[in-house]
Write a structure and sequence with these properties.
It is a single chain. The protein contains four helices and no strands. Helix 1 packs across helix 2 and helix 1 crosses helix 3. About 40% of the residues lie in helices and about 0% in strands. It has a domain of about 55 residues. It is globular. The mean pLDDT is about 85. It has about 100 residues and is mainly α.
């Protein structure tokens, strides 16, 4: 713990859609640092909100390795050009009709 006092917070469960390879790298970084994915994301966002870099040189080198492992070739500039494919927009359960099974009579 730093010199700052602890903050009591309330966390909420959320469902977000995120690019698959980005998620894989984030999960691997969280695991490497023994954080939960949520804790890692909170730290990244809080640093970004203050214009601070969330990772040091060693972590950035590890992230570079993980990006290669998972084939993540996107950059910060890519964030303004990401578009979902039509099939991804529908999601896995959409675009198909769900049928209800008949229950016991």
């Amino acid at each position: 713990m730093t010199t700052e006092s602890a903050h009591t917070i309330e966390r909420v469960q959320t469902g977000i859609r995120i690019e698959k390879r980005i998620l894989k790298v984030l999960k691997a970084v969280a695991e490497y640092h023994d954080f939960t994915l949520g804790n890692l994301l909170e730290g990244i966002v809080l640093h970004a909100f203050e214009g601070k870099v969330p990772f040091g040189a060693e972590s950035l080198a590890r992230i570079g390795q993980l990006k290669r492992v998972y084939g993540l070739d996107l950059t910060a500039a890519s964030s303004h050009t990401l578009r979902e494919s039509e099939s991804e927009k529908l999601g896995p359960a959409r675009g198909r009709r769900r049928t209800r099974r008949a229950g016991p009579a």
